[in-house]
Write a structure and sequence with these properties.
The chain has 509 residues and is mainly α. The protein has helices spanning 26-42, 51-58, 62-65, 67-90, 92-112, 116-144, 149-179, 184-187, 189-199, 215-238, 243-265, 279-309, 314-320, 322-338, 345-362, 371-398, 406-439, 443-453, 456-491, 497-500, and strands at 4-8, 504-508. The protein starts with a strand and ends with a strand.
Amino acid sequence: MSAESVTAVAPAGPDTSGSSSGGRHLGLALFVIAAAQLMVVLDATITNIALPAIQTDLGVSDANLAWIVNSYALAFGGLLLLGGKAGDLFGRRKMFQVGTAVFTLASLLGGLAPNESLLIGARVLQGVGAALAAPSALALITTTFPAGKSRNTAMGVYAAMGGVGATVGLLLGGTLTDLLDWRWVFFVNIPIGLAVLAGTRTLVEAERHPGRLDVPGAITGTGGLIALVYGITRGGEHGWTDGVTLVSFAAAAVLLTAFLYLQARTVDPMMPLRLFKDRTRSGSYATMLFIGAGMFATFYFLTLYMQLILGYSPVRTGFAYLPFSFGMAMAAGISSKLVTHLAPRLIAGPGLLVAAVGMLWFATLEPDSSYTGHLMPAMFVTALGLGMSFVPMTLGAVSGVSHQDTGVASALLNTAQQIGGALGLAILSTISTSAADDKLPRAAGSLYRGLATNDFALVAKAGDAVTHGYTMAFVAAAAMFVAGLLVTGVAINAGRQQHTEGAAPVHMG
């Protein structure tokens, strides 16, 4: 990729690196942070390509298939705030090391998993490791890299990893699944994790802050989210008046209410409510929630469509996502330049509108739609829109944060994306399944039976119903992007100087 000028802003706070990092290997430190961020982000999507292979090999039920994706997203998003706070209290480099080690071990267990229960358990453990490592990665930039060009470069690379990591995961997942085995989508993390651990000595530790972990907050917050997602998933399968479904929603309401109460009363809360006093920051978090909801579900349904309906191999599916990667990188470069001239809402707003148009384009898919005439341009348009949104939201979330809150503030951005992804996938899966079953009862199961027995008549009938379900999910995803657009227009009122003051243009290639 040609060099793109990217403007990035480090979180506010004193410069703790300065001369102390002048003689350090900043290139290696940047590699360590970028590799860790890429590993964490791509693992949210790298398993998507392998889902059909995993389902066939381990006999995963249709109802549990989405949990292979959601179990990671929920653990990651639900514990990110605790991970950010742990870094502030016990040392960000130490938490970065612990999180990377846990993630690497969980990847080994996932690759060796003999059944769906242990695989989902390994995915949860991966999410725990990611939650410890990810917030400290961004915070370590401010302590390792001197203020100015070096720090801005590191921030630009970090933002780029977050923007294209999901697409890289899809590409890598397809290649590994097709050429080797689905288990390698987990094994590939092991050498990366070990290399990151070996390079952490180049990172500069930050000062620790007094306080304690908010364990009750972590339990109520994460438990409430799990209950909510489970209720949505079960409601779509067993009905909204099902007893377990109603109990799940009730538990979610109680736990999430308790979580907010604890955050308001606890001396050292996991999620300091003061972070939401800034209107632009709150708007950035809310918008990222909607972005995650639409984007995660898009990868999930497009992958199933290409493999189950169009008959693509895993590696072909992975390479089919290349236009998405190019569009995302191109738009991120453009938006990084525009933030020095325009207010964030004037960049993110139009971007979300373009992304919604891309979703509606996907909603016109048919069982025989072509790649070049339909999928490829729709992917590129959607990626352009999302890429225009990522940089303003990232800068808005961390700009102006006090030094003691940098870990938690950066964790909130990832939390919004991951939780949005989990909720979005649960909601859109329910919509998709209901729409497909309205046309043909148990459409997905019929499609799998037809493919297994070479019953082409059944494949055609079930494929039409399943595709209809996917298109309804894309319509709902478009609505989520429009909701993000509305939040951006109403809540994000910062001018360009609030995001660009003191920034310097940097380049990534």
